[in-house]
Amino acid sequence: MLKKIDIQEMSLNDLEKIKDILISDFDDFWNYNILKEELESPNSKYIIAKTNDSEIIGFTGIKVLVDNADIMNIVVKKSWRNQGVGNLLLNNLISICKDLNLLSLSLEVNEDNLPAIHLYEKVGFKQVGLRKNYYQDKNGIVMSYKIMT
Ligand SMILES: CC(C)(COP(=O)(O)OP(=O)(O)OC[C@H]1O[C@@H](n2cnc3c(N)ncnc32)[C@H](O)[C@@H]1OP(=O)(O)O)[C@@H](O)C(=O)NCCC(=O)NCCS
């Protein structure tokens, strides 16, 4: 049976629920302590994707600076990838940014991260810069999304 997926604001309690499987089932690029700080920051906003049986299957978050938001991360649970969850999270994040009257969204992605680059381009992000060797020996692609008012 297809599961219904809801998008909700992420709480510290949600982070506690995925704490022990954060690295194994999601990704290892951000740890619990950094995420906790992010959730406590007044300039940050995080959302989760949650199934109707309460499984947290992805999250993403922004940090707002004046009229731009930086996407700090977007992660989908490994067993749920390539099923449109990333797309759902990103589109919800864009709606939140519109509601906050922001003008643009920015992010940086490893040039080797093809699924992420594909997803960002699919929702309308454009490459605006390159950071040489930003990820050790790999370049970072800077992407931006203009919010239409
Ligand atoms: C990036 C990430 C969030 C995408 O989440 P997701 O739920 O799998 O995303 P979606 O299913 O909505 O979209 C993924 C797209 O990438 C495509 N894709 C998958 N592997 C690919 C590859 N090797 N090359 C190109 N495209 C690829 C999928 O086909 C899909 O596109 P489609 O909808 O046109 O078919 C997920 O892969 C993830 O959590 N990665 C680890 C964390 C990470 O790298 N985050 C980004 C940091 S900048």
Descriptors:
binds coenzyme A, alpha+beta, 5 helices, 39% strand, 31% helix, 149 residues
Q: What is the CATH topology assignment?
A: Aminopeptidase
Low-confidence stretches: none
Please, what is the average pLDDT? 95
What is bound: which ligands? coenzyme A
The total number of structural domains is: 1
Strand content: 35-45%
Class from helix and strand fractions? alpha+beta
User: Order of strands across the biggest sheet?
Assistant: 1-2-3-4-5-7-6
Q: Could you name the CATH class?
A: Alpha Beta
Task: Count all strands and give the number.
Answer: 7
Distance between the termini: 38 Å
Radius of gyration: 15 Å
- What is the count of helical runs? 5
What form results from the Cα inertia axes?
Answer: globular
CATH homologous superfamily title: Gcn5-related N-acetyltransferase (GNAT)
Tell me about this structure.
With 149 residues, the protein is an alpha+beta fold. It has a single domain, classed as Gcn5-related N-acetyltransferase (GNAT) (Aminopeptidase). It has helices spanning 12-18, 22-26, 32-40, 85-99, 114-123; strands at residues 5-9, 44-51, 56-65, 68-76, 104-110, 126-135, 138-146. A 7-stranded mixed beta sheet has the order 1-2-3-4-5-7-6, sandwiched between helices. β6 (126-135) and β7 form a beta hairpin. α4 (85-99) crosses α5 (114-123). The mean pLDDT is 95. Coenzyme A (COA) binds at residues 27, 74-76, 81-87, 109, 113-116, 118-119, 122.
Summary of the model, kept short:
The chain is 31% helix and 39% strand. It is α+β, with helices and mostly antiparallel strands and 149 residues long. β3 and β4 form a beta hairpin.
